[in-house]
Amino acid sequence: MRAMASSDTPRRTGTDLVKRGLAEMLRGGVIMDVVTASEAKVAEDAGAVAVMALERVPADIRRDGGVARMSDPALIEGIKAAVTIPVMAKARIGHFAEAQVLQSLGVDYIDESEVLTPADEANHIDKWGFTAPFVCGATNLGEALRRISEGAAMIRSKGEAGTGDIKEAVRHLRSVLGDIRSVTQADSAEIYGWAKQLQAPVSLVAELAETGKLPVPLFCAGGIATPADAALVMQLGAEACFVGSGIFKSSDPARFARAIVEATTHFQDPEIVAKVSRGLGEAMRGQESVAVETRLSERGW
Amino acid sequence: MNAPTIGVLALQGDVREHRRMLAGLGATTVEVRRPADLSCVDGLVIPGGESTAISVLLGTSGLLPPLRARLAAGMPTLGTCAGMILLAGEVVDGRPDQERLAAVDITVRRNAFGRQVDSFETDLDVRGIEGPPLHAVFIRAPLVERVGHEVEVLAEVPGRDGVRRPVVCRQGPVLVAAFHPELSGDARLHRRFLGLVGGAEAANAAASASREEP
């Protein structure tokens, strides 16, 4: 092996392809919320494709109330040191200084998340200026396209985090994917009407009409609590699952983690979903999404 | 020769991009999730993804024994990124319980370039691939630290220490790359792989023909 030759071509970091590429690699997998290094190990052992490093899972954020902020860098570093898979962390909506800190820590994906208390009532982070990729939540197609126009490299449904109730995530996925199907039927004149209705850039709507899919992967988050929940959202068209409170608020986190990983891969195979669900124990108790006091999914614009 | 049937291991990762690339070259593709899926394929692609997750799922899906048997019997296989790690004989910075298919006698270091902020695009000369350099996307990519005698090194890039190390290798019918040819839209490495599939079919046909002759 010889020393670096002068003819080596330059390398470009933080490009669209590099940012979206990591999201492509996570497809078909499960990203798990963890609050300690030992939970992160449980997640990795179970076959998680990434972990989300947090101080509190959404169910506890709900219970505790108060202002929810970026996690302590020491906690994120401890989790990074514990596992070999990608580590994600959350910044508040619009809080670009928190995002800068997360990027400097070497976080692999930054979640500009409605689960934390928003920092800006009008603006999301301008994500194009960052080398680290961003994931953002969306409840409908317009929101998804606005986040992509700001530089998001992955979109996830918001669902209603911390409830263990899947119906909001189903609503969001059906809304995004249903509108994508409709846009692909639009003629060239109707693209402008769609852009106006969605409050999204015409260029992104036109690209969507052409390709029939978002330019970045669409994952599901918010309310997944069982293997069958994962199979449901994957069949609806989600490309991977984020599981927040659903694993470590269940009666047997290691088993739940592995079962949800298997169900996400074999989502078209009900026999396997049945096998991993059998005798699994109690899912997180949860609360019905209509009964919650604070609807996190209404945060973000 | 009829269009070959190529399986894409679909436990996790960027399966769709590989299928699109192979279909564009005229191959029939199938997703491989269960042991039965493996029986009808002429070659296999192990895609990019998380190697630890794919390793767990190889165990739970029951695919490991038949996959090892097919590899031992010389099934042409392409592994990209996580696929390279899984096909390697030895893995550094992996998990001790991570499955090693050991189809290529190399030692691979996971996440050799650093974290996602260090992921990059570059252009790469690959031996045996004609035309302009291949555009290569490295995402939390591995790097080869040792190659066995039977391994042919087809491309190298400098690692973090500035020393050039292999990123494309071939051993017999198994081709591995540390980057993602399936993401950049350049089909030449996949074409090279289909050439290995065609070569294996021709060799099998010749072997069965010679067995039939008295």
Give a short overview.
Chain A has 301 residues and is an alpha/beta fold.
Radius of gyration of chain B from CA coordinates: 17 Å
Low-confidence stretches of chain A: 1-6
Question: Under CATH, the topology of chain B is which?
Answer: Rossmann fold
Which strand-content bin applies to the residues of chain B? 25-35%
- The geometry of chain A reads as globular
In percent, how much strand structure appears in the residues of chain A?
5-15%
Q: State the domain count of chain B.
A: 1
Helical content class of chain A: 40-55%
Let me know the largest β-sheet of chain A: 8 strands, parallel
What's the end-to-end separation of chain A, in Å? Answer: 53 Å
Structural class of chain B: alpha/beta
Biggest interface, chains and residue tallies: A-B, 47 and 52 residues
Q: Rg of chain A, please?
A: 19 Å
Strand adjacency order, main sheet of chain A? 8-7-6-5-4-3-2-9
In CATH terms, the superfamily of chain B is Class I glutamine amidotransferase (GATase) domain
Main beta sheet of chain B, described?
7 strands, mixed
Distance between the ends of chain B:
25 Å
Overall 3D geometry of chain B? globular
Describe the protein's architecture and organization.
The complex is a heterodimer of chains A (301) and B (214). Chain A contains 13 helices and nine strands. By secondary structure, chain A is α/β, with parallel strands linked by helices. Chain A is globular and about 55 Å long. In chain A, helix 8 crosses helix 9 (202-211). Chain B is of the alpha/beta class and 214 residues long. Chain B has a single domain (5-212), classed as 3-Layer(aba) Sandwich (Rossmann fold). In chain B, 32% of the residues lie in helices and 29% in strands. Chain B is built from seven helices and twelve strands. In chain B, strand 1 (5-9), helix 1 and strand 2 (28-32) form a beta-alpha-beta unit. Chain B starts with a strand and ends with a helix. Chains A and B meet through strand 1, helix 1, helix 2 and helix 12 of A and helix 1, helix 3, strand 7 and strand 10 of B.
